[in-house]
Design brief:
Radius of gyration: 16 Å
Low-confidence stretches: 1-30
Distance between the termini: 46 Å
Helix content: 40-55%
Number of strands: 0
């Protein structure tokens, strides 16, 4: 029965991903008693992780051009909610799908890789164990197909003038 529940959850997650919906974590764990959210350290750690990650990407000319018109407080809130929910925490991500959010940004594979490198550095900075780091990256990596529009190692490309950023938080 447990394998059926796990497989059903995997199929539902795959269906959500295919439909462009943001990946959302299951609050149910199969082999461990604590969710990834709890093992990471809860909302305080997710907040600290987001602060570090956004600062690192924002300070890197290889990727920060894509955020010139981004409302940073909104970005942080959306990342926190998405990480919290995806890891099994109590938050609900209500933002746009990753495909909709990044449509027209012309994010390159190289820029995505830079952002993921900074995620790894932020996780290291917070002394997150490798097992939890890998689990978090495994939750986020499938979003690549919804974010990357240009399969190129190039970095530092400008945000197209035509891109419509989400409005600021009110």
């Amino acid at each position: 029965m447990g394998a059926v529940v796990q497989r059903t959850g995997e199929l539902e997650a795959a269906a959500r991903h295919q439909s462009g919906e943001a990946i959302r974590g299951s609050k149910m764990t199969t082999t461990q008693t604590k969710s990834l959210y709890d093992r990471l350290g809860g909302l305080d750690v997710i907040n600290a992780l987001t602060e570090s990650w956004v600062a690192r990407v924002g300070g890197d000319d290889r990727a920060n051009g894509k955020f010139v018109r981004t409302d940073i407080p909104r970005l942080k809130k959306e990342i926190i909610d998405q990480l919290c929910e995806a890891t099994g925490g109590p938050c609900t991500y209500t933002g746009r799908s990753m495909r909709e959010t990044h449509d027209g940004m012309e994010v390159t594979a190289g820029e995505f890789d830079v952002a993921m490198q900074h995620l790894g550095a932020a996780l290291d900075e917070l002394n997150i164990p490798k097992t939890e780091q890998d689990e978090l990256v495994d939750l986020l990596r499938p979003m690549r197909s919804d974010i990357v529009e240009v399969e190129s190692a190039e970095t530092g490309t400008p945000l197209p003038d035509s891109y419509q950023a989400a409005p600021p938080l009110t």
